[in-house]
User: What shape does this take?
Amino acid sequence: MIRLMMIGDVFGRAGRRALKDNIPGLVRDEQIDLVLANGENAAGGNGMTRENAREIFAAGVDVITMGNHVWNKKEIINYIDKEKRIVRPYNYPPGTPGTGFGLFKTKNNDMVGVVNLSGRVFMPELDCPFRCADQVIPILREETPVILMDFHAEATSEKAAMAYYLDGRLSAVCGTHTHVQTADERILEGGTAFITDVGMTGPRDSVIGVKKELVVHKFLTQMPQKFEAANGLYQFNAVIIDVQRDTGQAVAIKRIQNYE
Amino acid sequence: MIRLMMIGDVFGRAGRRALKDNIPGLVRDEQIDLVLANGENAAGGNGMTRENAREIFAAGVDVITMGNHVWNKKEIINYIDKEKRIVRPYNYPPGTPGTGFGLFKTKNNDMVGVVNLSGRVFMPELDCPFRCADQVIPILREETPVILMDFHAEATSEKAAMAYYLDGRLSAVCGTHTHVQTADERILEGGTAFITDVGMTGPRDSVIGVKKELVVHKFLTQMPQKFEAANGLYQFNAVIIDVQRDTGQAVAIKRIQNYE
Amino acid sequence: MIRLMMIGDVFGRAGRRALKDNIPGLVRDEQIDLVLANGENAAGGNGMTRENAREIFAAGVDVITMGNHVWNKKEIINYIDKEKRIVRPYNYPPGTPGTGFGLFKTKNNDMVGVVNLSGRVFMPELDCPFRCADQVIPILREETPVILMDFHAEATSEKAAMAYYLDGRLSAVCGTHTHVQTADERILEGGTAFITDVGMTGPRDSVIGVKKELVVHKFLTQMPQKFEAANGLYQFNAVIIDVQRDTGQAVAIKRIQNYE
Amino acid sequence: MIRLMMIGDVFGRAGRRALKDNIPGLVRDEQIDLVLANGENAAGGNGMTRENAREIFAAGVDVITMGNHVWNKKEIINYIDKEKRIVRPYNYPPGTPGTGFGLFKTKNNDMVGVVNLSGRVFMPELDCPFRCADQVIPILREETPVILMDFHAEATSEKAAMAYYLDGRLSAVCGTHTHVQTADERILEGGTAFITDVGMTGPRDSVIGVKKELVVHKFLTQMPQKFEAANGLYQFNAVIIDVQRDTGQAVAIKRIQNYE
Ligand SMILES: [Fe+2]
Ligand SMILES: [Fe+2]
Ligand SMILES: [Fe+2]
Ligand SMILES: [Fe+2]
Ligand SMILES: [Fe+2]
Ligand SMILES: [Fe+2]
Ligand SMILES: [Fe+2]
Ligand SMILES: [Fe+2]
Assistant: This one.
């Protein structure tokens, strides 16, 4: 069995602290083989600096996936091509810096495929994530049947459709982007683990990571509002997924919510 | 203490069956004082017929709230004004059939205020739900501090902002619309219970209620696709909230997921 | 010189009548070599039946282009593959019925390439129209430098960006979809004729073709509203473009607005 | 007769230069009584500084209307309440800085009412512009029947619906926001002048004012792109409307397109 942990969008300073506080214990106690985290909000809510990425890897993350905020810190364009442990949504146009999938070795030398895709409903205009999945999964399956997708999308329908579409072809479809963990984790008929959203790892007393009074003010006034990451205690949101080494089928998915 | 149960979007035949199977036992075992359900998808996914409403009330629901699908079955325009137990989003323009809030008596003769509002992010262009809440809540509070809002919205940020904005002014903000239950139920500092989404009561093996192959086909082809409610076993999604009779403050919120 | 006429979205009965009344005279007086019309609203506003297509061809249209309403009349799926004179947006997924570009002969046996693409801003989630143009134009240019694109899009920025992106690679970029003719027709530096929107050929006293009181009611009430084509007198909106036979460069573009 | 000139969105340096070059001659030759201009893009595309406003007034503009970019230069919050000649969209929430309508005297001491509203289709979530118009127009009509609306909106349907809804109640509905002048100026049955979009006064060789290569790059890459105002020669887009002093009915509307 291979045990994967996927951590929901890491948001700002509180999110990064949550990684340091939680990953070592979980890896040890839960015997996790590979740790993934969505890093699109690592830099105070928007994007991820090189320094953020270093901090996240140092905290025990093996692979960082991204989302619609991937380019918010422009410096990522300079380092993403060199850092193969960062995977950005595959469905950006060809020629986009970085890569959309990768193969990663666990501590026990097992190979795990990782894909990142962005949804298109209420999201940027990218290539069709369903057809992109059709392209990428066979490439990864040549190396390993153990494959996890971070599907970064807004609409619950698009996420569920993706999971059903791919059921049996990969180990897990983990939704991200809404910053709220859903209570619908399950193993689909074909053996694919699915959760609509893993949630957020960041400041708890916030509106999806942002200082709540700023978001409320924005809704009340409809005027432009600079958002800032909230301070204070963190929440750590993740899922742990058990996958059969030889078939790539998931046999268990468990939600994690830790609090400071 | 007053115990309220809010049931997530009732979807089609399976959803209506779930109500009959689950409400009586829950009301008895959990000692529930008032049962609310979102009915916007009662008629096979779109809208609610008069017959659907009768069936839902007969199953033990005391108040039906609605959402963006409220007008999909046109006949509702004919009966919504006579049926005071149906509450549609308040932020439709003045003159819209039906009403957006109401006062309802529990079995023990306690008064409970109910408001329904629709979000505006990725949703129809209605009046500002925040300012509408500011209007309605004082009216209800003249009668009772025990007030529950069904905030029918897509974006997690809009739902959380609403809950924080109203914290301490009403008993509960229950999100609906995404059809996926979230795992973030909690009592905010001011005593307002909050969950981003209560989830869906309808066919489990589906994409948010719809036959999954139809939704997948729609995403793959981008061609118009008539959606049909899925068949098969149901899920029942709800929350149970305990509210202090005299202060209106919530002291507990518990998620319910029952399966056929 | 080759003279092309592109007619804006043909809307309902009034639009079809406008074709019969206007095309013969214009073809004769203006010496037009090829007549194109956008037919996505031919059937009372939504889609195009086989009978509509026959009527449009009989009125003197040589090529029908389409848009986001292409599939509204489902019967088109049955006849679009047999009728090579219908060109639907190319950027639907591979496998979609119909074709997205074609080569057509003028009365003088000159070859004209036609491409239809849909924008993505405020529109359905299709493949990137810019990259699709990069694919199609070279294919057509192997046969002829005289190429006209119907770019069916909402946002003025996307239409202008497309025209500048393709300037010098094809003869004309004609915007459609908004149903309002723009006054910005011009020849770009590289020799490509451009207009943001050709306009609508349909009922004049209407809101973009629809009975105006229905549209106003929809905006006022935010309730679902069945739209119907307006009656009454028509407007005929088109552009006439002169293209050099050997270079494919446009030398003139002229707007046409005829009224009943 | 009162002659009004409404100038389309003034974009950046080229737009401001166009005002200085064109207004004096037009006012003199066309005998214009009141000059209005949309200023939301005056500051290099985004918002309007105090200095921009001074420059625009000095160029001969009597009233500046705004749009969705009104708040992009934050300093406007400080000066908009003192400068009554700036009118921002009325349908922002109560309490928003500035005002949404005003009464202005022409050179001959005639009173002209001006309203600014923002559409809601593909635009920010503001109050219903139709119901806001119902509120404002009677207030202005108590002083004068000569009333011009700048309806800043994206969708052609929303603009046309507004014009038909208000036909006979005000002198003119001038659409702005798309930056492309439409060729549909006309007087409606009830005597209201209407044009879907007045167009843009700014750099001609651009994508709606922005350096075209930046916009093309944005569409091709879907990566964030800082937009900059284009340089070079300007275009000046406006309409001139003749209104009967005593009835407020428009009798003529004429489009203006001047080029450097
Ligand atoms: Fe995120
Ligand atoms: Fe995101
Ligand atoms: Fe629903
Ligand atoms: Fe809904
Ligand atoms: Fe159309
Ligand atoms: Fe269209
Ligand atoms: Fe503008
Ligand atoms: Fe604008």
